[in-house]
Amino acid sequence: MSAPANWQVQSISSPALTLEILPEVGASILNLRAASGRPVMRRVALEAVQTSSQSACFALLPYSNRIRDARFEFGGETVQLRPNTKDGLSQHGDVRNRPWTVTRASDSHLICDFDSRDVADLNWPWAFTGRMEYRLHGPHLDISVTLTNVDSRPVAASEMPAGMGLHPYFARTQDGLEPLLTFDAALTYDTDERNLPTSGARPVQPAEDFRTPTAVGTRTLDRVYTSWDGIARLDWSPESSPHSALILTADNVFSHLVVFTAPDGSLALEPVSHATDAFNLAAQGIGGTDMKTLLPGQSLAGAVRITVEGEW
Length: 312
Fold this sequence. Notes:
Blueprint: E1 10-13, E2 17-22, E3 28-34, E4 57-60, E5 66-67, E6 71-74, E7 77-80, E8 90-91, E9 101-105, E10 109-115, E11 128-137, E12 140-149, H1 155-158, E13 160-162, E14 165-170, E15 180-188, E16 202-203, E17 214-215, E18 222-236, E19 244-250, E20 256-261, E21 267-272, H2 278-283, E22 292-294, E23 299-310
Antiparallel strand pairs: 1-2, 2-3, 4-14, 5-8, 6-7, 9-10, 10-11, 11-12, 12-23, 13-22, 14-21, 15-16, 15-17, 15-18, 18-19, 18-20, 19-23, 20-21
């Protein structure tokens, strides 16, 4: 199958990078490449894209990751969503496969907006808007994410649980070399067979610790970290010259980092604002999940910078 004919690719560039966006598919990133043509995120062919799952990066709004049984308690009420996974969870929000509107476009800057009030079958009981802003300058891609509660019901009913994140997949192999991964996060979560936390965060064990540069190798990872300093780094041949590196820097609102080895061999480093299933954990009185709530008119916003360094 090929991508629908109405999907238009929006491109922006800087002297170092070229970015391709699919507004019709959640304002997701199709490709991020260096000027040499080398992929920074995983290489994606437009004709292979059916949903954002095949893209290079997609947005997570109005929450990130999984919700147990697509249900949680909030404000004294049970909120039941439609499951969207085969194991009965609600996962990754409800914007990543929706059409977004391009509201600003220039050679190096793109803004896309989403309004849930335009969607008849939204899988979320509160009204919200989202904004994705992409800006290239030099070796940097800056991605800004904004989530705003625009619900118009009385305040008691319109206070909204909220979260957000990004799900980028990075190309791992460069010139046949695997990178070393480094990030400073002291805590992680134990999970069950559906990758849902069974308790609050606990200290990392040596095999889970990436505070010193470590090769991912053949291990399979799908783990959420917290007490993260907001920086993650991939280094290829760090002891030699020339070398190449990629640095992800996230604002403080992105307090958690998901590390996922994708089946296609890419590596997802996902800055997110809360723990997996944070709404249910918070309802159980478990702290440290960073669940947020927004009153009407309030926003949750943050930026992530991706920088290429060295030879690309």
